[in-house]
Amino acid sequence: MIKEFVSGLGIVTAAFIVAVGLSACSSDDATADNSSAVTKKGVGDAVNFTVVTAGGSTTRAFSTLDNYWTMNDLMAVREGSTVYQYKAASSSTSSGSRVSIVPNTDDAYTWSPEVTQRTFSAWYPYSSTPPSSVAGVTDQRSDNLGRSENWGTMTNTQYNNLDLLYAPDVAVSYKQPVDLVFYHQMCRIVVTVNSTGTKGSKPVTSVTFGKNNIAAGGTLTPGYTGAEGSTASWSITQNTSVQMRLVNIIAVDNPTTIRQYTYECIVPPQSLAASEVLFQITTTASDNTTTTTEYKPGDVYQDAPDFRAGYQYNFMLTLSRAGLISISTVSVNNWATENVNGLTATVPDAGY
After folding, report:
1. Per-10-residue mean pLDDT for the chain, 352 residues long?
2. Which of 35, 38, 48, 145 is most buried (CB neighbours < 10 A)?
3. Is beta strand 312-319 parallel, antiparallel or unpaired with respect to 306-307?
4. Which of 221, 134, 222 is nearest to 182 (CA)?
5. How far apart are alpha carbons 168 and 50 in whole angstroms?
6. Cβ neighbours of residue 274 under 8 Å, at least 6 residues apart?
7. Are β-strands 279-284 and 204-214 bridged in parallel, bridged antiparallel, or unpaired?
8. Peptide bond just before 297 cis, omega within 30 deg
9. What is the DSSP letter of 244?
10. Is the pTM here over 0.70, yes or no?
């Protein structure tokens, strides 16, 4: 399945591109080269930068709290063809709060009286060239819960770095502060599974997003996301599956009969046909026998899902003792706020 996505605007035909790493690209937000205004640290007054992530309370894929920057997070700040490495000077004190950033090397942006207008952009995680591609990561499992089971090996930092953020051009006058607003270029899929099997006999041991129909990476022109008129666009190929990251296990109601498992993954924007597999849920019985149950978009949506950049999609599923799956709720959450047509869940009969 080969598609190109223009975030917030829909789907158009595109060519298959396999992208690994980050490489230079040109985009509409690239500005004239103002590198003559760039001076070394300690020469002239420093340009003051602050950063924040667009959206509501759930706006960054960090392991502790969303929309929180962590001290020393590294990001790239660009002016013209010049790119310098900056870092968060402190951690966020509250969700959505702005954080100052400072140079991480001796190179820094400073003010020059002869240049009165400046334009800056930025991206996270740091790379020396603007983001034009994202390597596909199909195994996003992690051992972050500290349990004895083998949930995966991806570290929190590696997972956080999947969450590509981009701050489009900001034009400022002489000695004005530069307030950079980052936008998600990816989307996040979250599924919570209530397993009603007897405790210990039917635990959920893995959840996979898709079945050879998912794009884990691709190429892009970064820009605004999470709103009508978004400018970010992607070219992807949907031919893989993504093993999701376990983020929580809790007992629900009676802990001897119900366990709740929450998994998530970060992927480029994309859509699936109603006939395709949305999730594969694997359980393991006490005799180590595994069972994988597939769930398709046609069972969840009135229309096939359209996963857009800048949004989080939340699914609540229930897996019965007989291995049947029913849908409880579906919602689109605050990587930004949007009412997406076609995201109405179809609730099965009570006996399903």
Report:
1. 41 32 38 44 80 61 56 96 96 79 97 94 96 93 62 82 93 96 91 71 83 97 84 95 90 68 93 88 81 78 75 83 63 46 29 20
2. 38
3. unpaired
4. 222
5. 14
6. 296, 297, 298, 301, 303, 304
7. antiparallel
8. no
9. P
10. yes
